[in-house]
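[Q] Does anyone have a clean structure-token version of this?
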Amino acid sequence: MFIPIRTDVPLRRTPYVNWAIMGTCVIVYTLQVSVLKNGWDRPFVLNARDPHLWQFFTYQFMHGSALHLLGNMLFLFIFGNNVNDKMGNVAYLGFYLAGGVFAGIASVLVDTGRIVGASGSIAAVTGAYLILLPRSHVTIFYLFYFIGSFEISGMWFVLAFFALDVFYQFGSSGAADGVAHMAHIGGTLFGAAICLLLLWVRLLPRDMFDVLALLDRWNRRRQHRDAVSRGYDPFGYSPRGAPPRREAINPMGDRIQDLRASISDAIAHQNMPEAVKLYLELRAIDPNQVLSKQSQLDVANQLFTQQIYPAAADSYELYLRAYPKADQLENIQLMLGIIYARYLQRYDKAKEALEAALPKLHAPRDIDLAKSELEEIQKLHSPQA
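[A] Here you go.
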């Protein structure tokens, strides 16, 4: 048994609409089993042989069993929260209902029975998740001979379920298992297509993690490889006054953008060694490149942790120059002074950084540390009798 339990994408805001949809489904099912018994719920179930307009909305909130409800709510909780977060509450509600309607239409075209359940709408949500967050990971709990968990790419997880629906719908077994696989297929295609369109026309905010950004980076890498294969040297030197070559400009700009996006991606997934490796490549291509404020500081700290002290000092210096009004610059100057004094033996630079930091330090421990480092430097530079 394999059960998804969470994603690695943090929420920026509370997904109130997704929670309200889940609550509505639970309330409706409670009414089904307590009040709407013995066929009283038939007007609200989507009848493929005689569909009515309202049924394309009402069937989305009804379920055939408690297990059916539980499975759907689990998937909605895991994927719907992030999609709600990306779209906002009003847009997400409209998208969810439209996805259910489209899934219902797709199912009515091939099925002949009664259709209930939120899985078509949830399939639209997973299709949206595929487009908006293809680089995310889903944690899977497994219970077989052993109990444990593992992570899988969110993109491959959604595609695997879509492939299963296609297999069961069009395979030899058809839809004999009683599952409306065509509703899942229609919902997934609707969710993916709508989100691609919304990203394309920028009605949804773009970021470096959506599928269009992923394709853009792939295309830039392809252009860079093609340029290198034609003899372009990305680290070569062009003499002053030499006419610029088209292939010597665009590929480097694309490579820089690709590296910056990959660094942000690595930091977002807490893969700091990879971020450091990419950052060093970026700096080798263009020494003037600086990351965003927090990313630059994170990379500098990681360089220090990995004991790459020259690059760490360079990164801290770049941070100080790029963000002169940032908070707690004195702590950066203190760290810089320690690196120069203890690891690089550049005592003039160490003294300069420590003296700049000392008047602004507040913590007694930091003040004592700066003073002791300055005293050590003074001893080393004091003339011997």
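[Q] Thanks! Anything notable?
[A] The chain has two domains: 2-200, 227-234+247-381.
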